[in-house]
Amino acid sequence: MTIPLLLIVFLVTTTTAYQVPFCFSPGVTWASSVSGGLQSVDTPEECQRICADSSDCDSVTWYDGQASPHPDYCEMFLAPDPSKEVPCSNCTSGPESCTCSGRYSCSFDSNQLIDLIFDISSELSCAEMCYPNPECQYYSWYTPNSPTIQKACALLKSCSTRTGSNTCFSGPSDCLDTDIIESEYPLCFTVGSTWIEDLSKAVANVTSPYDCQSLCNADPDCASFTWFNTLSSPYPEYCEFYPSEVSTPTTPCTHCLSGLASCTCSIENHGTCETDHDLVIDILQDVATEVQCQDMCARNDNCNWYVWYSDQGDRLQMTCFLLESCINTMDCEGCYSGPDNCEDINTVTLPSQCHNYQVLDSFTRNINIPGGSINGLCDGSSNTRCCDQVESSIVPSDWSGAAYYRFSGAAGNQMAEATPVYRKCGTDYGGYMLGGHPSLGEGEVVRTGYFDANGTPYSKTVNITVTNCLDFYVYYLVDAPACNLGYCGV
What we know:
single chain; eight-stranded mixed β-sheet; 6 helices; 29 strands; disordered N terminus
């Protein structure tokens, strides 16, 4: 049988040669909501580029020239459900990019390294070697400018330890495998979701979620953050601040993850969990950060508490204890302990001063009470001033000398942190504290107390220790250095 020349020409001109990206799966799509579509798209790579330029797309299905009813068609999805994969004809599906890497290197010790291959000219080639290998979950590709090894591809079982790098690109083997991507980060991060509330601030050129979290934690107005990676569009490597956690991060976002300003809600140095008893589940060495220790606890079904010894630990260093419970406490310099998560922060074991303290509740020390104008403030006579010295004749009724104190009632809720407090608080030189109040995880901190001498500090200062006790603060205060001086509450 002879095929007419016209038919041969027709077959040649209507069959376009293309190469399917290695990360695509032929013959399948998703029974999920479609976010968009475009006709006359000649290749799956072009479909990927269109998706990458859209804020509502992270996955695509491309239909070739033989597909019906939409040949050469690019169908776009945002976070399709992998459990809803369905067959399709003349189609292939995959992520918007076959790489979803970052500028970091993965540690490849003998337990994690599968293979180290040299003379690999591109990251894409390295990723393609990792993708079909069932053991390979991550890869690291070292550029020609790398100071250690050049044009090398490390195939890895995991990426538990990361180091920032401008000459190495690392990423998961499959950009659609959320289990792999989420396992890279602590459980306190939520991958693929952000907050519904309006953001308060944004910072560009933030290369990791840990840096984003640190920036948020250092900002007194930031309680939550969302970080967008290098593939995010239109704002890659972008850090968003949110003023308060009034919801859970459930709003979908692409190439992003969210979390609180701090993953931990621990106690430092004083009142940490005892590690000498039978409640220890496991002891892990070479644990570089407290967050890693907490995450190991969170991933262990039997662990409810942890103790992490930092590199300054007075007994051990860089060691993580996983605990079934926290019954007894100890003092331990360079140690941190806390629950496996901070969802129920009230389970944190507080130091003893949070339970044993004196109360400063006299109205005389409130910042709104003037000094020098109200008779009988502290001695029932005509004296118009008070003095925080236990031997003074004009000592307030709530002052009993050096001790831990909590501000409460008419005195206010906490110690004043700013001037002017001259001729206020029922005294001449009002006392205030500089350095700020600590977060829960900071433990007991040392601050400096000043006394306002009409716009300038009094010649003598005092050391004050402050402890965050969840709902209030306690202060270790000593007698004022002279009269008439007193501590102010707000």
